[in-house]
Amino acid sequence: MRIQSKxxxxxQPVLKIREVVRFAMTGRLxxxxxxxxxxxxxxxxxxxxxxAKLVFEQLLKEEYLILEKKKWRDxxxxxxxxxEKGRRLGVxxxxxxxxxxxxxxxxxxxxxxxxxxxxxPGLVYMVENVKVFGSYLSKMEILxxxxxxxxxxxxxxxEEFKSKSEARIRLALKNGxxxxxxxxxLYWPCREVMLQ
Length: 196
What we know:
Layout: E1 8-9, E2 12-13, H1 14-25, E3 30-31, H2 34-45, H3 49-61, E4 65-72, E5 75-82, H4 84-91, E6 98-99, H5 100-119, E7 125-133, E8 142-143, E9 147-154, H6 158-174, H7 182-186, H8 188-194
Antiparallel strand pairs: 1-2, 3-5, 4-5, 6-8, 7-9
């Protein structure tokens, strides 16, 4: 899926609609009442609650999002999740097309970073392999983007993995990183490699 930064969807800038979907993708769009969800969408879109409600209804109707009523203990709440169509919108970028030469350069830079990660003894994970797919494998000179899959592997196992992971988390905290929850903290040693 490709979008253009000036594109309009449901009467709103598509990049803001994409942000609403991203909130749903990360579990940040929920509430005990639907009005709470509409308020959050209004903040994201910088629009009225009435307009936010219309956008929300369209996102549901056009199957970008799913509204589910759930129960936690004695309380019911609404949780919003994305569909496959919504996920594609949420992860898409509004970057302009690139030439094959630019794609080759970007891929070479990625492989340099992979080499740096794999040679860094402090990191807990290494890049086991990198696979390119999509339009890059064609003979086209103008590409929408470069599709890359990366597989990570632990550099060490057992107690050494545990102690090195804890050390990476402590270092991140010391350097000012905050974690949204326990899982965010737990997966930091893997995530920091992806951010390299």
